[in-house]
Amino acid sequence: MNAIEINELTKKYKGFTLDKISFTLPQGCVLGLIGENGAGKSTIIKTMLGITHSDRGSIKVLGTEMNGNANQGTVKNDIGVVLDDVGFPSMMRLPQIGKVLANSYNDWDGRLFEDYLKRFDLPKNKAFGDFSKGMKIRAGLAAALSHNAKLLILDEPTSGLDPLVRDELIDLLGDYTRDESHSILISSHIVSDLEKLCDYIAFLHKGKLMLCEEKDTLLERYGLLHTSPEKLAELDQSAIMGSKITNYGAEAIVDRQLVPSNFELSQIGIEDLFIFMAKERKEAQ
Amino acid sequence: MKGLLIKEWYSITGMSNFKMMLLFAVGVLGFGFLDNMRFMLLLLPLVAGIFPRSVLSCDENSKWQQFSLALPYSRSEIVSAKYIMTLVLCGCSALVSGIFYTVATSLKGDFDFHNLAFIVLLGLGTGLLIPSISTPIDLRFGTANGKILSLIWGGLLGGSGGLLMNWFGSDGVAKTSSSGITAYLPFIAAGVILLLYTFSWKLSVKIYEKREF
User: Fold this and answer.
1) What are B17-56's pLDDT values in tens digits?
2) Chain A residue nearest residue B12, CA to CA
3) Residue B71: its chain A contacts at CB < 8 A?
4) Cβ–Cβ of A100/B66 closer than 8 Å?
5) Is ipTM strictly over 0.85?
């Protein structure tokens, strides 16, 4: 079963359109939504959860159609969510938040929540509004992981966190996905975090999905070419995913299969691939 | 729904500690001034009716409205929890006003059951009037955009306060007789406000079903 199936999802705002987004997240996998600020990552997540209504398209989460479904509450028992601002009431303390959630989720594990609070070193007698950004995210994660969710949906959980906390978070999510029935959809503009964690990568740029593929396939398929502008011009243009010409030469992300073997290619990172592709798309526009 | 009700309760008691203390102090003070109970009797349900708006404003600031939609609840349940808690809060405040009236007039020896019923009913109606009007508007436009609404509120507060002040005599008992149409006016008023509250509840659910965050 797929954890998420999104088909032709469209949402129009004044000055922004989320344009026919389609992707699938197989159960047991991690999909990273990568895009610049305002690319539409949060809109996809909010639409999936029914926080925002879509204009067109279908969304299935854990086999349940979400669009226009008034009974999506049942499936939400199986979804752990950490939104950008987390969203716990600012005047409440964590034990109170725990009590609210214990009476909301069918399968709330109070002991597990307590364990996470200790593990994350979170204070119990402090109002949530007084927490730092990192503490808020950790509290949100503690809640999301304490009701035996089959799917985690995380919107920019690493932004605003220091590298140490980010690393800790990635490890924690890695532990979560050891269970094969657990899946994660995570959005971020910090690509290095997602590169460590994700099985699938989706690039989003200005409301459009540029690609959605397995991470390993992307890394195998594309390479970074350092050459002269003249030699780059000789290449089959369909092989070039994105290029940059400077005074010192040319750099391009190319499809390895479409490049002659005499060209020397180096390994690319997901971040390079995204930046080159986004720039190429921008110039084409 | 239980989780939502608990959240509303924590929100009210948590954010309004100071106001609660103030209310308590005013209540105690009012109890001491048995000759002028009007202010105290009206204040409790009036303030109780303002709490839900404060909670809504806090929900907006903390983005609870978004997070609550990720919880296993329907939009209708999220709105209903607010209305139920407001009803409980205003009902309790009206009852407390009734208890104050009973104790005070019993001490003075002029307790009147008819007046007690009026005080409780009018208290409940007074408390529910403001949230009946403000909640659908706040849910539609957000509390931050409700500046014009605040002016309407002021008018309503002043108007309803003035009317009720006029209703009660300076000795704190209602200027009504237990016979004739005037005997039923508070019941009719409370009934009309309860109807308005029910309509407001349904309207808010419809508004919230369409709301996007």
Assistant:
1) 556 656 665 665 565 555 556 566 767 787 788 888 888 8
2) A91
3) 73, 76, 101, 104-105
4) no
5) yes
* Residue after which a domain boundary falls, among A214, A243, A261: A214
Give me the number of domains chain A comprises. Answer: 2
Domain residue spans of chain B? 2-210
One domain for residues A142 and A260 = no
Q: Does B4 touch chain A (CB under 8 A)?
A: yes
Whether A158 and A245 map to the same domain: the answer is: no
Mapped onto helix, strand or coil, the DSSP state of residue A204 is strand
Task: State which of A199, A214, A229 marks the end of a domain.
Answer: A214
Give yes or no for a contact between B114 and B180, defined as CB atoms under 8 angstroms apart: no
Looking at the structure, do residues A124 and A231 belong to the same domain, yes or no? Answer: no
A86·B63 Cβ contact <8 A: yes
The residue range of the domain holding A121 is 2-214
The amino acid that residue A211 corresponds to is L
Of all residues in chain A, the one with the smallest CA distance to B56 is: A89
Is A210 an interface residue toward B (CB < 8 Å)?
no
Do residues A163 and A246 share a domain?
Answer: no
pTM over 0.80: yes
Q: Which residues contact B115 (CB under 8 A, 6 or more apart)?
A: B101, B105, B173, B174, B176
pLDDT in tens, A124-137: 999 999 998 889 99
Instruction: Examine the domain organization and report whether A262 and A148 are in the same domain.
Output: no
Cα–Cα distance measured from residue B53 to residue A218, given in angstroms and rounded to the nearest whole number? 51
A65-75 burial string, b = 16+ CB within 10 Å, else e? ebbebeebbeb
What are the structure tokens assigned to B83, written together? 């209305």
Residues A178 and A263 in one domain: no
Shared-domain flag, residues A200 and A162? yes
Nearest to A52 by CA among A43, A60, A40: A43
